[in-house]
Amino acid sequence: MESIDIKTPSKEYPVFLGQHVIEQLPLFLEKNYSDITKLLIISDEKVASIHLHKVKELAAKSGKQVLEYIVPEGEHAKTFDVFYQCQSFALANGLNRKSMILALGGGAVGDVAGFVAATFMRGIPFIQLPTTLLAHDSAVGGKVAINHPEGKNMIGAFYQPEAVFYELSFLHTLPIKELRSGFAEVIKHALIQDPEFYKWLLTEIQDLAAITDEQYLYMIKRGIAIKASIVKEDEKENGVRAYLNFGHTLGHAVEGLMGYGNFTHGEAVLIGCVYALKLSQYKGLSFDLVEFMEWVQSLGYSTNIPKQLDHTSLIQKMKKDKKTISDTITFVLLNEVGFPELAEINDEIILKQLEEIF
Amino acid sequence: MESIDIKTPSKEYPVFLGQHVIEQLPLFLEKNYSDITKLLIISDEKVASIHLHKVKELAAKSGKQVLEYIVPEGEHAKTFDVFYQCQSFALANGLNRKSMILALGGGAVGDVAGFVAATFMRGIPFIQLPTTLLAHDSAVGGKVAINHPEGKNMIGAFYQPEAVFYELSFLHTLPIKELRSGFAEVIKHALIQDPEFYKWLLTEIQDLAAITDEQYLYMIKRGIAIKASIVKEDEKENGVRAYLNFGHTLGHAVEGLMGYGNFTHGEAVLIGCVYALKLSQYKGLSFDLVEFMEWVQSLGYSTNIPKQLDHTSLIQKMKKDKKTISDTITFVLLNEVGFPELAEINDEIILKQLEEIF
Fold first, then answer.
1. CB atoms inside a 10 Å sphere around CB A312
2. Domain range for residue A266?
3. Of A27, A156, B218, B317, which has the most beta carbons under 10 Å away?
4. Which chain A residues have any C-beta within 8 angstroms of a chain B C-beta?
5. Tens-place pLDDT, residues A134-189
């Protein structure tokens, strides 16, 4: 079992990673949270049907009362209504400040469950039990949120979990589309901080359906370490944390305009990465974009913006992003692989490059 | 102009207190928040009709764009719907992380506006501009929240403002009922921490309609200092901050069962103080309760639980309080004036004392 310590200015907590780490949950709870009396597992319909039974059994072993609340799948979990329903359920079932939330699922479940934990009675503890590859990104760093029709993750908080139990065997049940979504964030982490890791990915990962446990362990460990090093420096996104947004400026716009849940986060981010790499080349990056495109296409990614989206709408959407602080859109670009920087790019160049590449 | 520094583990900020402090707002913004481009004033209907014009004018002097959003009065501002509407307004008007919220009003406005600030794009800065005496309590300490039908302040956060501008002249426009509500928290602060201050209040304040500016200045300064000393030690209510809850266990239950907005917070808290003092006497406090009752009655407080509330419902309601962590209700009692302690009291005694006193 690997254990990675995440240090942020507001909190320090462990990420347990490996096969069977979930078995350690009861002892961890008993040992560190003797004052907690109730556990509320928040999960989604699909994940619950596969993993809830086991997790409930393990949670109950801690001797605490275990409750469950099931939310819709994917981004449909991240609405104001679902947020309110979770709060109502918690209140109706007598949760209080001696209760804890367990977020069992992918990024969306972690986001809404974490935001419920952050705000229920002004904050109760929560633990992330990620079930997707994407969660190597979302479960670490304390970003929790729900969506507003005007934009993704618009209402939320920075609220760190008590711990993350990353059970690798859960990944075996993931549909390939979900794997592909999560792997895009792995690629992103490599691009912004670790040329070696990027080379390793390019060489080692040729088929997403054939990733070995050893490869998973390595890539998740590297991904989390990269994210942790950035979050440690900048928990609340005032500085370097913005680099994690590589590929997300255009990615979020694509995802949003397609309608949340209709296009996976990672697949949209991958298109955003392609675009950010192209912009970076325009600014002087020396990078083999052709090799990159061939590789990601061979992994099943689309590298094109969906046809129904026009470039002007994309620009408008990007201007509404919460990292956008002026009328000019800010992108994360690369000087070299591993060396990101923020750059404000004017609309004309954005449009020209959009037309050139897509 | 008085300036009191509030120090919490997460933040340090000033409370400016006195006549004309509000005039200092533009310079303060210009000097300390040059990167902020938009200000959103959140206020309620009544306060806006009296003070919005002036505050808007002052805010605009900072050179930033000024927007306003008006919420309903009192606890009606603290609903999920209003919270959502504020967020929607902010998004529709292009607020972003370079925007700031100004909460102009009493405790309710501060609570909802603060919670909007705490969660909009995961947190933007806000400034409290309190207009009530009650706000000497609510505007300091970073508790922000909205209500749930199941209980007051159930959904919220600990989120500190950038500053508090406490304009004393705003108090001149306060209805006596509102003054009475706020003065109850002044009494509470004296009782839990400062016997001298309690004596001063008992001697000096005989008519709420005739409080002088000098008296206001003194009592608010003392009240804030007491609250600040507690919040400094315990920002997130894990320990001594619970003492601030003196009078609130029964008070919140009375307020809740009467329907939020139908009975002022402070008037309910005062009844809770009477009851907590009685329980404290039962536990050994030597205190002239008769003198206290006469004094507060002469100030216009009711010291009786409203007739329509039965004692069993009150006990049930108290058990749902978010500070209640077991089946036994926890009260803040006094050993002496100035020396509070937490005590779990069983239902039988609670009921017996309720019947004896009311």
1. 11
2. 176-357
3. A156
4. 10, 80, 84, 87-88, 91-92, 94, 96-98, 118-123, 143, 145, 148, 150-151, 153-158, 236-237, 320, 322-326
5. 988 888 889 999 999 888 899 999 999 999 999 999 999 899 999 999 999 999 99
